Amino acid sequence: MARKIRMKAREQSREVTYKSRAFRLPDLLEERRLRGEAFFEFLRIPAMSAGVYALPAGGTDPQGPHTEDEVYHVVSGRAKLRIGERDHDATPGALLFVAANVEHRFHSIEEDLTVLVFFAPAEAARRA
User: Fold this and answer.
1) Of 59, 65, 90, whose CA–CA distance to 77 is shortest?
2) How far apart are CA 62 and CA 116, in angstroms?
């Protein structure tokens, strides 16, 4: 059975049915850059969503806790990720898990930071 994947566009959302879908990281990074936004969601199904998040060196991470579990995969850059009261190194190759509703944010961003973000279920799916 094909899964429905919602690809979000800036102007409108459209729902497309796929049995699978492949993405190229360079294309995703370029799309995020062209949109001029810190976060670009490239995949949404009910069980999960995924996006690219980028913060500049010296920048501030404005995010708050999410109602979904979350995994970050650091693509490039160097920073710290504070999860609750504990800091973790956010360096290329790091995989960082944050449970739902836990306070977290990137800080001490020494080099432009780019991360892949995976939410389960899809981000904002639990909001009323």
Assistant:
1) 90
2) 17
76, HSE (Cβ side, Cα atoms, 13 Å)? 11
Which CATH number goes with the domain that contains 99?
Answer: 2.60.120.10
In a domain, 125, yes or no: no
Q: Provide the whole-model pTM.
A: 0.82
Q: What pLDDT was estimated at residue 10?
A: 33
Phi and psi, residue 19, nearest 5°: -85, -30
pLDDT tier for residue 5 given thresholds of 50, 70 and 90: very low
Neighbours of 41 (CB within 10 A): 20
DSSP SS3 for 70:
strand
